Amino acid sequence: FIALWVLNAKEEVREQVAAYFKDPVAFFEGSGVSVIEGEAQKTINEELLRDIIRQYMAEKGELSGVEEALEESFEQMPDLASILENVVIEYIDEGMRIELIETQDKYFFEVGTARLKPEAYRVVSAIGKRLGELPNRIIVEGHTDARPYGTQRYTNYELSADRANAARRALLDGGVKEAQIYQVRAYADNELRDPDDPFASSNRRVSIIVPYLE
């Protein structure tokens, strides 16, 4: 199966795999170089291998082509090009992660609320249309920055939970099936995207995770 997958993988991946088998030593890079009997021992290029493994898992986990499909949907909304720059698609160990990341001048939610802005609703609904075509389950996460919000009765936990649920409802409106929703998680400021700057705008985000099929 792996051999068939490599043959059908993107050219870039095939080249990376071929480079490894052609010259394994050159494929490794990093720090901590030591010399044993004249042969260089180097740390593995973990990021490169991780990318290869994740793409393999995407193929195996029925996520192949989803990123391209989402990008096609985004291209059909040229009037939202500015906010779409803040939608980041990544592969993590759990599966595909689609993050809606706020910046200092671009917001997905009305300030201090869980109300999706109209343009943000359109983006999330478009994502929901594509994800609704999949058999995969979906996890929605809400995150805030470290600024204390609200009162003792309404904190960053409540805000992150409400924003995640607002995104969940927009996904359902777009076409995600209720049974696909597996979890809604509220992290407040406990999983910062930029831990070096707890108050950074990028820490305010909603993450939509599509786990690999088991």
What is the approximate shape? globular
Compute the CA-based radius of gyration.
20 Å
Proportion of helical residues? 25-40%
Kindly report the average pLDDT value. 82
- Count of runs of 4 or more consecutive helical residues: 8
Q: Give the neighbour order of strands across the main sheet.
A: 3-4-7-5-6
The secondary-structure class comes to: alpha+beta
Residue fraction in strands: 15-25%
Uncertain residue ranges: 30-44
Taking the alpha carbons of the first and last residues, their distance comes to 16 Å
Q: Which sheet architecture does the biggest sheet show?
A: 5 strands, mixed
**Helix-strand topology string:** HHHEEHHHEEHEHEE
Number of strands: 7
Quickly list its features.
globular; 214 residues; alpha+beta; five-stranded mixed β-sheet; 7 strands; two-stranded antiparallel sheet; 8 helices
How would you summarize this macromolecular structure in one to three sentences?
The protein is an alpha+beta fold. It has helices at 2-8, 11-22, 24-27, 46-60, 66-75, 81-84, 118-131, 156-174, and strands spanning 34-36, 39-41, 87-91, 95-101, 138-143, 181-188, 205-211. It has a five-stranded mixed beta sheet.
